[in-house]
Amino acid sequence: MWLQKEISLKPRSRGFHLVTDEIRAALDEPMQIKTGVAHVFIQHTSASLTLNENADPTVRADFESFFNHAVPENEPYYQHTFEGSDDMPAHLKGSLLGFSVQIPITNGRLNLGTWQGIYLCEHRNRGGSRRVVVTVHGE
Fold first, then answer.
1. How far apart are CA 116 and CA 7, in angstroms?
2. How confident is the model at residue 25 (pLDDT cuts 50, 70, 90)?
3. Which of 29, 60, 72, 138 could bridge across to 33 with cysteines, CB 3.0–4.6 Å?
4. pLDDT given at position 117
5. H or E, element range at 68
6. What residue ranges in the chain does DSSP mark as E strands?
7. What is the mean pLDDT of the chain?
8. What distance in Å separates the CA atoms of residue 89 and residue 91, rounded to the nearest whole number?
9. What's the chain's Rg over C-alpha atoms?
């Protein structure tokens, strides 16, 4: 069985945001699929997805600090600058983190670890709403 849904995530400020509950709600957990895989893909090049700590918000703040240090704005070698000083770094951060995650499905639910959550990594100062496509395959 295959299932695919497009989810529109509300606009968020720059940073790392838990979106696990929004994705679960859109999938109507528990699903009819008992065993399978969910592929979650963001349709943008200046935001990304990753899995990590879902309990302590300082982890998300540290992610933002690290990536701002690792990929700073206003570097003199950036050529793609007409969309703002945050745009080229956003593309680089997106490529470093990636635009999709895969999560196993067990007994109709996303089988995340106890302390795992899905992050929307918003790399733009004003990124707007983001579209995510979730494709589920299993039986």
1. 20
2. very high
3. 138
4. 98
5. helix 57-70
6. 2-9, 13-18, 35-42, 47-53, 100-106, 109-110, 116-126, 130-138
7. 97
8. 5
9. 16
Say if residues 12 and 123 touch (Cβ distance below 8 Å).
no
Q: Give whole-number Cα distances, 122 to 16, 18, 34, 69, in Å.
A: 6, 11, 32, 15
Give pLDDT tens digits for 109-132: 999 999 999 999 999 999 999 999
Query: Angle formed by the axes of helices 57-70 and 87-97, to 10°?
Result: 120
Give the whole-angstrom CA distance, residue 4 versus residue 54. Answer: 25
Which residues are 134's β-sheet partners? 5, 40
Instruction: Give the pLDDT confidence of 72-98 residue by residue, as tens digits.
Output: 999 999 999 999 999 999 999 999 999
How far apart, in whole angstroms, are the C-alpha atoms of residue 36 and residue 64? Answer: 32
CATH architecture of 2-138: Sandwich (2.60)
**Mean pLDDT, residues 55-80 taken together:** 98
